[in-house]
Amino acid sequence: MAFCEIDGWCRQQLARNWPGVPIYSDIRSLNGKTIGYVDIITGGFPCQDISAANVSAKGVDGARSGLVFEMLRVIREVRPNWVIFENSPMLRVRGADRVLDELEGQGYAFWPLVVGARHVLAPHRRDRVWIVAHSERRAQTEQRRRVEGNDGLSPQQEATSGPRDGGARTPPNTFGCGIRIEQQRVPERRTARGVRDERQAKLAL
Question: N or C: lower Cβ tally within 10 Å for the chain?
């Protein structure tokens, strides 16, 4: 588990709440290959160039919100099983297609959705865009693992992978923040082309 945060005060809070967890200071200089394998990369990249409050917003081409491409670079270097993005709902018209195209090019299936504070019974709306992505390559490996019956691991990996009979496993490594995903119900997978076609169909109506 590790964090990447450029703000000094925020780094202090992270260090206080998660003592001993590595904190990188700048994603622009972060080399994903030095992180090692993680199960999940999750991040809420800057929203200033995407927010509806910015009438001259440049979207993901902006200097701040454009850091999403640094996050995508780290994803490409690390190849995690799961990826989670969070940002303003205006991302849907200020760069979501480019983010989804990049994820698709890296071999991820994804589910863009809007979930707001009101959906967890908070007394305000505050909708947010979430993009949940899963590695298609890992999904194929998991399928082979089920068919082969040995988790698709080498003997060395099998010896250190932990119990397979319902016993406790080590929680997955995470990068960004401590989020776990229980893969129980998998919704219909989406592609960038499918999202674009659906939006165009709605506009045509």
Answer: C
